[in-house]
TrEMBL record:
Record-annotated Lactate/malate dehydrogenase C-terminal domain positions: 156-323
Enzyme Commission identifier(s): 1.1.1.37
Domain of life: Bacteria
GO biological process, one term: tricarboxylic acid cycle
Catalytic reaction(s) noted: (S)-malate + NAD(+) = oxaloacetate + NADH + H(+)
Domain Lactate/malate dehydrogenase N-terminal span(s) in chain numbering: 5-148
Family (UniProt): Belongs to the LDH/MDH superfamily. MDH type 2 family.
Uppermost EC category: oxidoreductase
Active site per the UniProt annotation: 187 (proton acceptor)
Family matches, as SUPFAM superfamilies: LDH C-terminal domain-like (SSF56327), NAD(P)-binding Rossmann-fold domains (SSF51735)
Molecular function (Gene Ontology), one example: L-malate dehydrogenase (NAD+) activity
Name of the protein: Malate dehydrogenase
Residues at which NAD(+) binds: 11-17, 105, 112, 129-131
Amino acid sequence: MTHPVKVAVTGAAGQIGYSLLFRLASGDLLGPDTPVQLRLLEITPALKALEGVVMELDDCAFPTLHSVEIGDDPREVFDGVNLALLVGARPRTKGMERGDLLEANGAIFTAQGKALNDVAADDVRIGVTGNPANTNALIALSNAPDIPAERFSALTRLDHNRAISQLAARTGSAVADIRRMTIWGNHSATQYPDLFHAEIGGRNAAEVVDDQAWIEDTFIPTVAKRGAAIIEARGASSAASAASATIDAARDWLQGSPEGDWVSMAVRSDGSYGIPEGLVYSYPVTTHDGDWSIVQDLEIDDFSRSRMDATAAELVEERDAVTALGLV
Ligand code: NAD
Ligand code: LMR
């Protein structure tokens, strides 16, 4: 057994937490030989429910679960953490405007960014799942000046997985045969799932599909609006799949993307592909040992360009809104 890894999860008593914690504790992230110390953050009124979840974690007797600590103070919970999965966020409630939502989440991610800056381990990596994920990540990284911005990412892996699954179903191929899927931009309905660089068994996916109308009118909207379709069907937003994607993203970040493949991660733009520098924008990235690099030199045609720019424009609007609120 190696040294335990300290993993913080925020919003741990929520829906995603109820799946994520058990996957983390059972070794799905770090494998069977690395013990996990869970550090769970919740708001005070949810601590009692969280105690119940901890009882259930105990009852699983996971050999890889070293210990669990819970609390409502980010400075205590984040102390020495190597990985922080920021899942907890304020959902939009009736009568709430977009600006109200950004402001409510701004307060959460400002405080958590500052706490991580002060108390997290030197090697910390931070993944943001809570919505609006890209802009929440931007707020957190802006409030953590001592943590390199490359240590922050927002989750678009769920969109990436959704895109793979839709493509597999349409073409009758196996998920394992699909590589080089890309989600560009925001984790929102403006995201651009890109089939023009994806491959099925080594062949270009758009050529295999050979149906631009399906790509534009079915594939892209199905992937981009999948979150809303799940809310409509389930009466609650995606949880197990979001937890699974959160694990996939963190695992590949820490352990490396598969040879010959890449993954989608929303990271701070360095201006690649003409996207404004500083936005937290989803790109195709390869990862190695906790670092990522944006895949360069992909050819972008006019169709892809307009989709990539539209989702960037939405992120610029979100950035301007949180800048006006003094959050970044
Ligand atoms: P949920 O409402 O069931 O749980 C959220 C939890 O966060 C609650 O228990 C709440 O008490 C807690 N919380 C709120 N403020 C907090 C704070 N300041 N510190 C710590 N905890 C806090 O929601 P959920 O279904 O688990 O989803 C969590 C978030 O993930 C939502 O914002 C949701 O929209 C988002 N989400 C993102 C993706 C993605 O792909 N990026 C997918 C699904 C859901
Ligand atoms: C999802 O993608 O399932 C979540 O982000 C929920 C949503 O609001 O779309």
